[in-house]
Design brief:
By secondary structure, the protein is of the alpha/beta class. The protein has 13 helices and 16 strands. Strands 3-4-2-1-7-8-9-10 form an eight-stranded mixed sheet, with helices on both faces. Strands 13-12-11-14-15-16 form a six-stranded parallel sheet, with helices on both faces. It has a two-stranded antiparallel sheet with strand order 5-6. A hairpin with a 2-residue loop joins strand 3 and strand 4. The longest helix has 20 residues. The N and C termini lie far apart (49 Å).
Length: 349
């Protein structure tokens, strides 16, 4: 089967959505299918056309950026050309350009499958709110022309105004989780590198440094934790610099974080490879998912941590709470409640 997968950003851009699509594309290619990714040429240092791990990647030229979005003048032409040589079209939302792709897919007589990852909630500001409403409109048009809409959990679907509108097309399919095993040597080397042997407990967070991730909830929980556990440390894995649309958020929180960095209670690890992530999780006493809104729909990192025996403390968001509620590995806390987060972590330690 020939599959066309369409999304705004793809690897090496790092997010839960791009990791999901990378895993899906590789699994399909390994099963013998022909997989093409159509995405934006958001980084000029990347090739326009690339074959990577059996997956063909086509990057459509970007004329300009609008907040977190991109304008791609050739996108529909690229989509039409690639659809005509494909059997199935898979669109990943939220995505402004998906509506045009869904219409072209139906015109080409191809089944259109939409994967809805999460709601889009732009930062405050008039322009961002206009952009937010435009994307909502495009998402709704996309679903109208889609044959099937996929999301991760029934919990999220039941609480999403968007998904409840298209319940007759909905399929619940849990996200793919693939992580290489970590050798005891790799786990020990990770601990040695960050001097974790005498720093307990170790609290992990794996995310982009973005407002919806609730970094400040963990920050505000730290004083109570450090009062009881003076050697506690936070390891933050993921992008934390120059994130589009998050500069003001970073400016607001960084002075507080820098104090914890200076006292060696906070370490930014940056983006980690899958092998490094596999060594990261066993070194944690708990992983935190303090997300604040429906832009977080699940938290793939929770499953990765649990596979490695590490419990999670997650906010009580629909979808996000499901890994803990299903497995019992951790605790669920009220959204945005730093005191509850500190208590839950203390109970785990």
């Amino acid at each position: 089967m020939r599959l066309l997968i369409v999304l705004t950003y793809y690897r090496p851009h790092t997010s839960g959505l791009t990791i999901y699509v990378e895993r899906l594309a590789h699994a399909l290619a390994q099963s013998g299918h022909q997989v093409t990714i159509l995405t934006s040429h958001y980084d000029k240092n990347l090739p326009r056309l690339e074959m990577l791990d059996g997956v063909r990647i086509v990057r459509s030229p970007v004329m300009m950026r609008i907040s977190k979005g991109v304008i791609m003048p050739r996108f529909l032409l690229d989509a039409w050309r690639l659809m005509r040589e494909s059997d199935v079209v898979n669109l990943h939302l939220p995505q402004f350009d998906a509506a045009g792709a869904a219409i072209l897919g139906r015109l080409a007589g191809r089944p259109v499958v939409v994967t809805y990852h999460c709601d889009l909630l732009m930062p405050p500001g008039f322009f961002n709110q206009v952009a937010n409403q435009a994307v909502h409109l495009m998402n709704n048009l996309t679903a109208l022309f889609a044959n099937t809409v996929v999301t991760y959990t029934q919990d999220y679907a039941d609480h999403s105004p968007y998904l409840t509108r298209y319940a007759h097309k909905l399929r619940i399919i849990q996200p793919p989780v693939v992580l290489p095993p970590a050798s005891p040597e790799a786990v020990a080397q990770f601990a040695q590198r960050y001097e974790l042997d005498h720093r307990r407990p170790v609290i992990g967070m794996a995310a982009r440094f973005a407002a919806e991730k609730g970094v400040e909830v963990l920050l505000n929980a730290l004083p109570a934790l450090l009062e009881r556990y003076p050697q506690a440390i936070v390891l933050f894995a993921g992008m934390h610099q120059n994130i589009v649309g998050e500069q003001e958020y970073a400016r607001r929180l960084m002075p507080q974080i820098q104090k914890y960095e200076e006292s060696k209670h906070w370490i930014f690890l940056g983006n980690l490879s899958p092998q490094e992530m596999a060594a990261f999780y066993p070194n944690l006493d708990a992983l935190t998912i303090p997300s604040l809104n429906s832009t977080e729909a699940f938290g793939l990192v929770q499953i990765e941590a649990m596979i490695n025996g590490t419990p999670s403390v997650a906010s009580a968001l629909p979808g996000v709470r499901q890994p803990v509620l299903t497995t019992g590995m951790g605790q669920v806390v009220p959204i945005g409640d730093s005191q509850a987060l500190a208590h839950a972590l203390t109970d785990i330690f």
